[in-house]
Amino acid sequence: MTSGTELPGAQGQVQPRAAGRPLSAAQRKKAGIAAFFAALALVSGVGLLKTDYLDPKSVVEKAKPGVFTLDRCEHGGGTNQGPSTSCYGDFRSDDGELKLTDAPLKESHDAEGTEAGEDFPARAIRPAAGPTEVFRTDDQGESNLAMRGIGALGLTLLGVMLGGFAGRMMMVPGPARSRLGAGLGFGTVVSLLLWLIGRGTGGGFWA
Predict the structure, then answer these.
(1) Which end of the chain is more exposed for a tag (fewer CB within 10 A), N or C?
(2) Structure pTM?
């Protein structure tokens, strides 16, 4: 039996959720900001993956193997860990066809732990246009290249996480939204660590 305030047939039916209302202007603004930074991080991450990992990897595969002898490293920014470190030396290919004098290392971390006059395995290429490229190719050099790739992937993952936050702002409050927020928070921390560690140890902010 229904009361005087109930509509016929309303008993037991699921009522519309108030949270389904359109987003407020402030919510739309927050979602838009998150989406903007998500797109920015994604584009930057994909760009870094190409320029800092895929392109060097392609160069290394085509370049001539040989030996690089370190001459000197020049540090900018006022400290020995400044972001503008540049290292130079001489390269000689194994077949003797390619000899480079005062050639810059493409990656300054490749000279880490090496004193002037010491050498290490490397690959170099002298393109018809553009600067000469020299990369270290022993375990340390391969690790530096891999870390650059990890840093780029971290930034790309950060973009995905920020995109997730933008979508989460449009969800109805509840357990699912809370679980998604926790997952995105964890993913954001992981992506930031990958980005900072990868970039910092493989050619990043304080090379």
Answers:
(1) N
(2) 0.68
